[in-house]
Design goal:
The protein is mainly alpha-helical. The protein contains 22 helices and four strands. Strand 2 and strand 3 form a beta hairpin. Helix 7 packs antiparallel against helix 21 and helix 8 packs parallel to helix 19.
Length: 493
């Protein structure tokens, strides 16, 4: 009878766990349908159901990551307001127009490195019409460079020293015993992602029919209005005069990135402070019959007790370094580069960054609440699989990314779980490129914008939703990048 009761209790708990998981997935799915701020806000409804409806203990909001995003977006937004982004786009356009026959390979490289520099893929909207214009004038099917360039603009996130995904990976890894720095991550992710993008570009080089052999495109050209629409316009930034103040803003921004990378490599150069930590293996401190404190509780309360806690010298954390440097750089641009804060707030970089803040806030808090309450159960369910095939966690990262449209949120929500399952840090670094999966369902702003920018109509969202222009380059890029990163991480670490 006792065995039957235990079985019934296990089944009941499993059913509740599944219902709660469906609430999490449902909130993410509904949020992704509305897009923008709704992704984070609707996650709040899921969180409320778990906490108030099921009595689950709330997880921890990812405040460190949010602060870094705010600092980085503020700096990048101020640079855009100064006109510095226009100069970067102009430099990229000059290179692309100089080698139009190589647009399928050069376009993804330019969008990739713009994202690496600025930390967000939303800076490429100005460049996409230029890529399409160059392809059309060279007689190249625009879908070829446009599809892979849109993918590349998001791939660059795991290669940027100021992107939330990279900073979160470093901070969470350090907290779980994997001593990795931002340059250490970039040393793996940048070459791996470039390999993936070049593989995707090679696969796109002869993709689809050439424009002169495409019957649908040729039919469009028979209509004078369509012909004028396709070939009459020409997007360019080359006629825009860039003031010296805008160029100075770029120099300040690049200087800030150099300082961050320098301190990430030479952390001994950072100021160090005495920090309290608990001594492992010490017995709890009995205050009275109703109160017993562990070493960790003493540290949290900032109470030093000989034999239970100790002081050690700890350098300034990199998440604080990034925030201080980015905010300071933004201030210098305002003072010396004529950057308008009001214009920055109205710009696309700032607005998309704040949307990312809300999304990560809601999504990561919801996910952490669910997984932290079922951590032991998850470990029992998945430990056998990940011990045998630790790289299989890449599929989990990819599937979660398909749902939540944020690489930073995937890292913040899923990386602690991965470490708790006993997966080694080098393995997780190797599968880091797999956190980009939201090209799979073509509802991300950069993909939708790219479809609209292609005046030829060759870059499309297919009739059956998944047969779109970003699927092939996305799958090839992420798969290749993950394999290369896994090999590099295994060799180096």
């Amino acid at each position: 009878m006792s065995s039957e009761n235990n079985n019934f209790e296990f089944k009941t708990m499993s059913l509740v766990m599944i219902i709660q998981l469906l609430i999490v997935l449902g909130a993410l799915w509904v949020g992704s349908r509305y897009g923008s701020l709704a992704l984070g806000a609707i996650s709040g409804i899921g969180l409320a159901l778990l906490v108030f409806g099921f009595g689950m203990k709330p997880g921890t909001p990812p405040t460190d990551v949010i602060y870094i995003i705010i600092a980085a977006v503020t700096c990048a937004g101020i640079m855009q307001a100064s006109g510095g982004m226009d100069w970067l786009i102009q430099i990229a356009e000059k290179m692309l127009r100089k080698h139009p026959d190589r647009i399928t390979f050069l376009a993804p490289l330019t969008t990739f490195f713009l994202t690496v520099l600025v930390g967000t893929g939303h800076v490429v909207y100005t460049l996409m019409p230029i890529i399409c214009d160059i392809a059309l004038k060279k007689g190249i099917r625009p879908e070829r460079p446009c599809g892979v360039a849109s993918v590349a603009s998001q791939v660059g996130i795991t290669c940027s020293p100021i992107a939330a995904a990279v900073v979160a990976f470093v901070s969470i890894s350090n907290a779980n015993g994997f001593d990795i720095t931002i340059p250490g991550v970039l040393m793996i992710s940048i070459p791996a992602c470039i390999c993936g993008l070049m593989a995707a570009a090679a696969a796109s080089y002869h993709r689809g029919l050439d424009l002169d052999k495409d019957p649908q495109f040729q039919e469009k050209l028979k209509d004078p209005a369509q012909y004028e629409y396709i070939y009459g316009g020409g997007a360019t930034t080359l006629d825009k005069e860039i003031p010296q103040s805008a160029k100075n803003a770029v120099f300040i921004f690049l200087g800030a990135l150099a300082i961050i990378v320098f301190f990430a490599i030479f952390q001994n150069a950072l100021p160090a402070y005495d920090t309290l930590r608990g001594i492992k293996g010490t017995d709890p401190l009995v205050i009275n019959e109703n109160l017993t404190l562990t070493a960790d509780q003493l540290v949290k309360a900032k109470i030093h007790v000989d034999g239970m806690t100790e002081f050690f010298s700890k350098p300034l954390a990199m998440n604080l370094v990034i925030q201080i440097v980015m905010i300071s750089a933004a201030a210098l641009m305002i003072i010396f580069c004529k950057a308008s804060p009001k214009k920055a707030v109205a710009g696309p970089v700032w607005q998309s960054g704040m949307v990312a803040v809300v999304a990560i806030y809601g999504i990561a808090w919801l996910a952490d609440t669910y997984f932290s309450n079922y951590l032991t159960t998850m470990q029992e369910m998945l430990t056998g699989i990940v011990k045998e095939y630790p790289w299989s966690i890449a599929f989990v990262f990819f599937l979660v990314s398909v749902l939540i449209n944020s690489q930073g949120a995937v890292v913040v929500a899923m990386l602690p779980l991965a470490y708790s399952l006993g997966i080694d840090g080098p393995v997780l670094l190797g599968v880091l490129p797999s956190v980009y999966g939201y090209f799979f369902i073509p509802n991300y702003p950069s993909d939708i914008a790219t479809v609209n920018f292609d005046r030829s109509g060759t870059t499309v969202i297919g009739k059956y939703l998944l047969n779109h222009s970003f699927m092939m380059p996305g799958l090839i890029s992420v798969t290749t990048s993950t394999i290369v990163a896994y090999i590099l991480s295994s060799i180096i670490y």
